[in-house]
Write a structure and sequence with these properties.
It contains two helices and four strands. With 136 residues, the chain is an alpha+beta fold. The strands form two sheets. The chain has a two-stranded antiparallel sheet with strand order 1-2. Strands 3-4 form a two-stranded antiparallel ribbon. Helix 1 packs antiparallel against helix 2. The chain is elongated. Its main location: other.
Length: 136
Amino acid sequence: MDLDRALRISAAGMQAQSTRLRVVAENLANRDSTAETAGGDPYRRKTVTFRNRMDRALGAPTLQVTRVGRAQGDFPVRHDPSHPAADARGYVRMPNVDSLVETMDMREAQRSYTANLSVLEVTRGMLTRTIEALRG
């Protein structure tokens, strides 16, 4: 039944976007997490990689999270000689989390999740009306 396929495709999209939201929440929660020792690495931003995967049971492509990785790149530094993680020159390496980027990523994930939820609700409504029509 095609309505069942629509429900499963929407559920796959919602699952992928919920993973994305969880990673954004982790990044925002750790945006001030520095190293515990001098010269150590602070929290490194996590990223989510998606891909379309052909679901043979459904006969349709679905969205899937393939990897939760770590963003590469330099850490911003802040001069704070009193910080326990400061190096010999007094600089502390800060996490490479940008709140603006995370907020934009969160908004995009929210919109995609909401769109998939709308499809799910419409499909469920169609199924309910079909069952009621068949009952007579």
